Fold this sequence. Notes:
By secondary structure, the protein is an alpha/beta fold. Helix content is 33%, strand content 20%.
Amino acid sequence: MKIDVSIGSITEFQGDVIVVNLFEGVKQPGGGTGAVDQALGGMISDELENGQVFKGSVGDTFLFPTYGKLPARYVLLLGLGKPEEMKNRQLRRASAAAIRACKKLKAKRVGMLLNGAGIGQVNAEIAARLLAEGALMGAYEFTLRKSQKEGPDEEPLGPIESVTIVEHDAGKQTAIESGIRVGTVIANATNMARDLVNDTANYVTPTFMAETAQKISGSVSCKVLDQPEMEKLGMRTFLSVARGSVEPPKLIHLSYKPSGTPKRKVALVGKGITFDSGGLSLKPSTGMDWMKIDMTGAAVVVAVMKAISELNGLDIQVDAFAPCCENMPSGHANRPGDVIVSMKGKTIEINNTDAEGRLILADALTYAQQETDPDEIIDLATLTGACVVALGKEASGIMGIDDGLIDGIRSAGEAAGERYWPLPLYDEYKDFLKCDVADMTNSGNKGQAGSSAGGMFLKEFIDEGRKWVHLDIAGPAYTDKDVPEVPKGGTGVGVRTLLYYLYGWNDIQ
Length: 509
Ligand code: BES
Ligand code: ZN
Ligand code: ZN
C-alpha cells in the first residue's frame, strides 16, 4: 500500500472511497468535510442532526454512497473524538479504523483528508506521519501461511493500492511528504517485526532470523556469530540453552554508525528464543503454542535497525544484538540443577530451564558491553509470565538503574502509543538470586515479584555505572484483542518506542 499526497480538493478525488473527518459533537462540518457535505446535498449534516449512529468518537465510521454526486463511489465519515483529547494515539487509531473500513469495501484507491492537522501541536508533518503509521499498521494482516488469502469475512481481500492525502494548501506539500516518508518507515518496521513474530517457529528459526538481518543493507552492517565463534568467546550460558535443540544458534550484531562523531552510543539487546518449550522444565501444553512469540525482542531490534537504515541522519551510534536459539528438551538440554559458567565468569545454577531468556541475555549483554562500550544499553525480552499477570497486555514492565533513561523511554513510549510501567529493582530482591552451589540461581522465588527477579538477574551482567534499562514485553508482545492499529497476533511492541526514543520524536504525546 502506497501513501502519497495530492494538492487539490477532496471533492474531485478520483478513486473508490474518500475519507472525511469530524470531531465529536460537531454538527456543522467545515473545510474539506463541509465541501463534501455540500456536494452530497447536506447528507452528512443531516446525519449529524437527525441520525442516531455516528457519534464521532475516535475511529467511529459511517458510510455514505455518493450516487454519482462525486467521482468517488463512497464517502467514509471518520470520527476523531474530542479535540482536547486528540493526541498521537487517537490520530493513529482513527486512520487505522478508516483503512480497515475501506478494506471491507474492497477499495483500491482511497483519498483522505489530513486528520487533525492544525489542532494543538499537531502540524501537517506530524499529522501525515501519524496517518501513515495508523494506515499501514491498521491494514496489516498475516496471511503468509494461508493457501488462500481471505479477509475476516472469508471473502478474498485485495490489498488497498494507494492512500492519497488530499490537501488544498500547496504550502504543506513538503511537510506532508516528509511525514509520510517517516511514518511509512516506522509502520513498515513494526509490520516487519509482526511478520517475524506471527510466522511460525518451524519457519522462523535462528538461521532465518540471521538471514533476515543480513538482508538489511545501506548504512547498517551485519555480523552473525555462529556456534564455534561463540564457544571461543565463552558464551556458555547462551550455548547451554541452544544445545537442547537441533537448530544452530546465531548471535546477530547489526551496527549503525553516523557519518560524523556519534553524539552517544546506544546498544539494543533483544531476546530471540524462536520457540520456548520450557526445556526439561517443560511448559504445560496450554499456551505453549504461543511460544513462537518468544523472539519478539530480537525481531524488534532487527526491525529498528531496518528502519534506521532507511531513515537518514541519525547522529547516534546504534548497535543491536539478538541472541537467537530454541529452548527444547533433549538429551543435550540443560538439566535442572546444572551449573554453567557465564561469559562474564559468574557461575549460575539452572534450577528452572524455562527461565532461559535471562541465560541467553546474560552473555549477550556481556558481549554487547565488551564490543561497543555503550553509553546506554536497552534490552527487550518476553521474559516473565509474572509481567503478564501484573500488567496484562496494556503495558510492558520497565526496570533499570537510571531514572533519566527510564523517563526517556516511557515518554517516547507514550508518544509512540506503547506503555511502560515501572517495576522495582530493590536491593532486597538480590535474595532471589541466592544459591547454595553456585554464585547465583536463575529462577527466583516462586510466586514472588517474578519480573523484578528477572530484572535483578540481568542487572548482575551490567557493568558498574552503565546506563541500562530492561523492558519486559511479555504481555504486549502479542494480543488476541483486535484494535484498529494493532490487529490480533504479534504486535511488534517496542519498534515504535525505540525509534521515537532514538530520533527524539516525543514532541507531542
Ligand atoms: N518466555 C517465557 C515468558 C513468557 C510467558 C512470555 C508468557 C510470554 C508469555 C519465559 O521464558 C518463561 O518461561 N519464564 C518463566 C520464568 C520462571 C521459570 C522463573 C515464567 O515466567 O514462568
Ligand atoms: Zn521460558
Ligand atoms: Zn522464554
